[in-house]
Amino acid sequence: MKNCLMILTAAVLSLAGAGCSSYSEIARWKSDISVNDGEVPVASFVTQNFSYQLLGFIPLCTGRPWTKEREDIVDDFNIKLFADEATLDNNLVSLNHALDVVGSHRISQLKSTQDNSSMWSLLLINRHEVRTQCLILKPEPLLADPK
Questions:
Q1: pTM of the entire structure?
Q2: Main-chain phi, psi angles of 18, to 5 degrees
């Protein structure tokens, strides 16, 4: 029993160090090429988060998404054990924070994907990835007061 517990602990820690992460990036747009609706974006944003579950439903570890509480965007291994923060809701919170940083809440071409992949080892481990990306458009100019 002690050996099984040590193997399980080693597996969880190796998964935590090997793949549980969250990644976010704001890329400033450096082109005058317009998108489908004729507007030129000011930036693009992408965020993705990974988590691992035992048997597909028992959370082992997860990356933590970029939010207001974590001011710097870093591709780090800020992980949380026995939790699952790889959700579309958390990615949208991260996107909302990126929009605050850029200074515009207008977006185009929003796309979110989720991927589950299982792998066999001593235990059935499921890897869950949630990715969200979009283009950030210029803020609309404020209309003059018609008085």
A1: 0.76
A2: -90, -30
Question: Are 102 and 26 within 8 A, CB to CB?
Answer: yes
Sign of the Cα pseudo-torsion (141, 89, 115, 69, in order): positive
Give the lowest-confidence range in 15-19, 35-39, 61-65.
15-19
Q: Using one digit for the tens of pLDDT, what is the confidence trace for 110-122?
A: 999 999 887 655 5
CB 1 within 8 A of CB 9: no
How far from the centroid of its chain's Cα atoms is residue 47's Cα?
Answer: 4
Pair 51, 84: CB distance under 8 Å: yes
Do residues 76 and 111 make contact, with C-beta atoms less than 8 angstroms apart? Answer: no
The per-residue DSSP string of 43-109 comes to EEEEEEEEEEEETTTEEEEEE----TTS-S---B--EEET-----HHHHHHHHHHHHHHHT---EEE
The answer, yes or no, to whether residue 142 has pLDDT greater than 90, is: no
Is pLDDT of 76 > 70? Answer: no
